[in-house]
Each structure stands twice: as C-alpha cells, then as structure tokens.
Amino acid sequence: MLSRRGFTLTELLVALALGGIVATAIGRVLIHTHRLAQRLAQRIELNHNLRSAVAILPVDLRELDATDPAGSDIIDMTVSSLRYKAMRGFYMTCLPASGSRVSLDTAAMGSRPLDPEYDSLLIFSDGQTLLAGDDRWVHVDLTAATLGRNCPGGAPSLDATIRPGLAGPDSVLAGSPVRSFEVTQVRRYADAAGVTWVGARRFSKVTGWTALQPVAGPLGPGGLRFTYFAREGAPTRDPARVARIGIMVTGRTSLPVWLGSGKPRYLADSLATQVALRNNR
Fold first, then answer.
1. To pair with 157 at 20 to 30 A between CA atoms, which of 93, 102, 167, 194?
2. Bridge partners of residue 270, in order along the sequence
3. Distances (CA, A) of 112 to 16, 87, 192, 205, 246
4. Which positions of the chain have pLDDT values less than 50?
C-alpha cells in the first residue's frame, strides 16, 4: 500500500504567516535603509553646495578696491545682491602709452583673454616718477583687442584700443600694470519653479545683462545674505567705506527626506564666511 506524504492545511497557513512576517520585517529594514541612505546622500550634497558657495563667492571679492578715488569697485550693494567690478586679468605694458592704444605684453595672468564686449581696463599711471602721491589707476573702456608685434624688438603684443584716450605719454611707462575687469552681479533669485538659488550674471556692453546662471543652491530660508563692514568694524552702507564683506549662505536639500516621523521634509543648514577687500584691510 502506497503512503502519501505532504502538509496539512494548518501547516501551510502557519508557514505562510511566518513567511509574511519575515518578508514584512525585511521590507521595513530595506525601506528604512533606503530612507537613511537618501538622507545621508542629501546631507552630503547640502554640505558640498554650502562649502562650494562660500569658496566661490569670495574669489572675486578679494580683488575689490573700495578706496579708489575714481570710484569704488562696488557699484551697488544690498542684503541679497552685490554688483561690482570683477577682475579678470593682469597685464603689463611693453611700451610707454598715450592716446587711444596701449600695447600689452602677451604674457598675462587671468581667468580668460581680453573680451571687448565685457571688459574695461584699469591702467596704472605713475604721474611724476619721483612722487607717489599722484599715482592712480585710470579707468578706460576697452573697444578692441588685437594681436600684433609692437613690443620692443618686434616681439608679440596685445594691442588694446581704449576710450577715452590717455593724456600725457610720460604717465604710463613701459612695464606699467594693467588690470581688466567686467561688471558682474551676484544675487539671490527664484527660478520658474519657485526654487531659490545663488545666481551670477555679467554685463555686456552690447546686449546688456546676460541671463542669471545658478552658482549654488537650492537655498533655504534666508538664502543669501551679505553684510558690509567698515575698517573700524561697524556696519556700513557706503560702497567707498567697505573693508570686509560677510557672506552667509543658507542651503536646503534638493529633495525632501524622511526624518523618522511625519511627512518628508527638506533639510536646511547655513555656512558663513568673511572676506577682506584689497587695499582696505
């Protein structure tokens, strides 16, 4: 006689119940692990964005000179916006300069080549060589920049056409420093989706302001905040008296994260720094 082995209905139900309990527990562990990993990833991204913002923003600001008698490099300043002359290059004249053309040595330092659409120049005028009190930086508009061979001995030159022209051939000597700058604005702005960012744009002498490009973000409550201090440490609203600029960036995560209870929420954090301006520390 053959014997048939198998499971009773009760045993099957118990096995299914135990399997369901184990599967539910494993599912909860996986969900919790996923949420924890997402929260850690968002926290790392938030910290990276904050560090990037406070590292990038001071780069231009360190080069600003608020004490220039011809006008502060800070053009306009508010709590959430800063418009300024951003230095882009450093050159040396290879010949004494006068009139509307300046010949520059092609060995230059800077973030990019001269661009007449955006750039203007600061040319150091020595005045009388035995006196320091009449030295100054002459502000001129750059209208063209072409390569030539006008440096001594027919060496390569970068010939800049400027306006207004320089008066007095003895005031700009060979070897005088020349700095190029463009007008830049950094400010807080909201995109079409209502998300807030740190944005930057530059001014074209042909078409006006370029579109804002995101520099850091998204931002949390407060977003971007500038504070301006005079040399003695007191807050100031005068661009000519600014010696230090405080920068505070409040960022948030790009996605809401689960914090253990309730609905997922955005994480937010802040990072602050200060930068001293050139010639006014």
1. 167
2. 250
3. 70, 11, 31, 17, 27
4. none
Q: Check residue 69 and give its pLDDT.
A: 76
Beta bridge partners, 224, equal: 249
Quote the pTM value. 0.81
Sketch the domain layout of the chain as residue ranges: 43-82+183-276, 86-182
Instruction: Count Cβ atoms within 10 A of the Cβ of residue 13 and give its class: 0-12 exposed, 13-18 middle, 19 or more buried.
Output: exposed
Nearest to 73 by CA among 246, 279, 225: 279
From residue 110, give the alpha-carbon distance in Å to each of 86, 113, 119, 156, 179: 11, 7, 13, 18, 9
Phi, psi of 110 (to 5 degrees): 160, 180
Architecture of domain 86-182: Beta Barrel (2.40)
| Token code pair at residue 190 | 């909201």
